[in-house]
Amino acid sequence: MTNSATASATPDVPTPRRALRLRRRLEEFTPMDTIPWEEQAEQLLRCREGDGYMGLRPPARVDDEVAALLDHFALPAGASILDLGCGPGMYSARMGARGYAVTGVDIARPVIEHARAEATAAGLPCRYLARSFLEMEFDGEFDAAFLTNSTINHLSEDALDELLRRVRRALRPGGLFACDLVVLPRDFHEQPPSESRTIFTLPRSPWSDRPHRWLERKLSFPAEGQRVVHHVIVPERGAPREFWSRFVMLERPAFSRRLARAGLDVEAWLDQDLRSPALPERELVWALARAR
Ligand SMILES: C[S@@+](CC[C@H](N)C(=O)[O-])C[C@H]1O[C@@H](n2cnc3c(N)ncnc32)[C@H](O)[C@@H]1O
After folding, report:
1. Interval between CA 142 and ligand 1 midpoint (Å)
2. N or C: which terminus of the chain has fewer CB atoms within 10 Å of its end residue's CB?
3. What's the domain range around 160?
4. CA gap 265, 172 in Å, rounded
5. Same domain, 56 and 142
6. Residue 152 and residue 38: Cα distance in Å, rounded?
7. Mutate-to-test residue for ligand 1 from 3, 92, 151, 155, highest number of ligand atoms within 8 A of CB
């Protein structure tokens, strides 16, 4: 929700072309994430943009991704699909409307309650569960599972392995798992640490329902293959608030090995459109892996 929020806001100050050099080291940014997911989820629901939400992928892109995912899954109507980190259910609801039995799982209760109410009102075959995908206990229940919005890049190494194990367990043998992820740009490791900043002035956003400024600092730690995003929210009145999130950039071969260790074999690396094979220089790609 946080990283893609930039897409729909107009910056006051364009990101400087020449990034500033950073003096701080990655170890100083210890937690993976201090984003208040519950609070942000509640606020996100107040930030509708047409059929979509500020900070999430626009509805037309969700339409395309859902159509492509369903083509890859190639499942009969009624098959069961698991939507991990489902948010307000943009993907689940579309799949439910096509006749699939979708289970959406999200750690933030407000989006789950919202998605559940929408599904009930529309009579969709979707169920929504408020829980962490790192604690789900499904066992061979699903024909396919997916995780969107590069959420996978926000996980620590241990959490990533835990998630993949649980996804494998949730799938029937032969079931497909799809996720999009940001991979390390070529020659990234050789670059020095750097920083870029953008300031937005917003009447409201998933950070606040009052007018505020949002400073987004993107700190890049190439040697560690990580980015840290620092969000400073400055309200018209009152104290500023700040949050951090860490973003681990993955490498295709290493991620394939992780998937394989969990019992998921990569079948394809796909481009952002989920239709064509991912070219080697692509930074956002989809992995499609089959459960053994
Ligand atoms: C960027 S949003 C994407 C929402 C939705 N998949 C979409 O693309 O419209 C990421 C979602 O992952 C959820 N999330 C983060 N960590 C989670 C966890 N450990 N278990 C379940 N959901 C989680 C957040 O609450 C948030 O709704």
Report:
1. 19
2. C
3. 40-184+250-291
4. 14
5. yes
6. 19
7. 151
Q: Using one digit for the tens of pLDDT, what is the confidence trace for 211-257?
A: 999 999 999 998 888 999 999 999 999 999 999 998 899 999 999 99
Q: Looking at the 3D structure of the chain, how many domains does it have?
A: 2
Q: Tell the residue number behind the tokens 């946080």, with chain if given.
A: 2
* DSSP-assigned letters across all residues of 122-169: HT-SEEEEES-TTS----S-EEEEEE-TTGGGGS-HHHHHHHHHHHHH
Distance, in Å, from the CA atom of 66 to the CA atom of 95, rounded to the nearest integer, reads: 7
208 CA from centroid of ligand 1 (Å): 19
The residue type found at 85 is: G
206 plus 216 within the same structural domain? yes
Helix H or strand E encompassing 264: strand 264-270
For residue 156, the model assigns a pLDDT of 87
What is d(CA 82, CA 191) in angstroms, rounded to the nearest whole number? 38
CA 240 to chain centre: 26
Q: What is the pTM of this model?
A: 0.91
